[in-house]
Specification:
The protein is mainly β and 168 residues long. It has a single domain, classed as Alpha-Beta Horseshoe (Leucine-rich repeat, LRR (right-handed beta-alpha superhelix)). Strands 3-1-2-4-5-7-9-11 form an 8-stranded mixed β-sheet, with no helix packed on it. A 3-stranded parallel β-sheet has the order 6-8-10, with no helix packed on it. A hairpin with a 2-residue loop joins strand 1 and strand 2. The protein is globular and about 40 Å long.
Length: 168
């Protein structure tokens, strides 16, 4: 059984998915209040899906999201966030889907993303990243969809082992 609900962060809605092991638990919807950037978000350690797309946040992503080690899907497109992707996101080894387009992310795309071995969909369009796609992306062999814009990559050698890639 699963739990699907919403979180309210600084007057913006965040959707999340919580996996229960009990057959006695039914699907419920709840609303909680957690201030954006507060460490409480990192305590939702059973979270599988986190979405705060289409919001008007400002500032960087809370590094505590990196504590959500069971997270499989994160949707942060058009959320108004900026800055670098926190290094704590290297802990998110179960990610399968990352939508993070149309924000103000800056700096280089982190090399640790190449360690998200289960990643199937990555959308980083419409940001302010610099440099090129890290060579570590060649390890993303489960990738089905890769959408990145605004970078200067001299070659596409990193996609050689992405045999299942259908959208580039």
């Amino acid at each position: 059984m699963g739990y699907f609900g919403t979180k309210l962060l600084d007057r913006s809605i965040v959707t999340f998915h919580w996996q229960f092991n009990s057959d006695d638990v039914h699907n419920y919807q709840h609303q909680f209040i957690i201030r954006a950037g507060s460490p409480e978000i990192g305590q939702l350690t059973e979270l599988r899906l986190l979405s705060f797309s289409g919001n008007k946040f400002s500032g960087s992503l809370p590094p505590e999201i990196g504590n959500l080690r069971r997270l499989e899907q994160i949707y942060i497109d058009s959320a108004g966030v900026s800055g670098a992707i926190p290094s704590t996101f290297a802990n998110l080894q179960n990610l399968q889907t990352v939508w993070a387009s149309d924000n103000e992310f800056t700096g280089r795309i982190s090399d640790f993303i190449g360690n998200w071995s289960q990643l199937q969909t990555l959308r980083f369009k419409g940001n302010s990243f610099e440099g090129s796609i890290p060579p570590s992306f060649s390890r993303l062999t489960s990738m089905l969809e890769l959408r990145i814009s605004g970078l200067s990559n001299g070659t596409l050698d990193f996609i050689r082992d992405m045999k299942s890639l259908s959208v580039l």
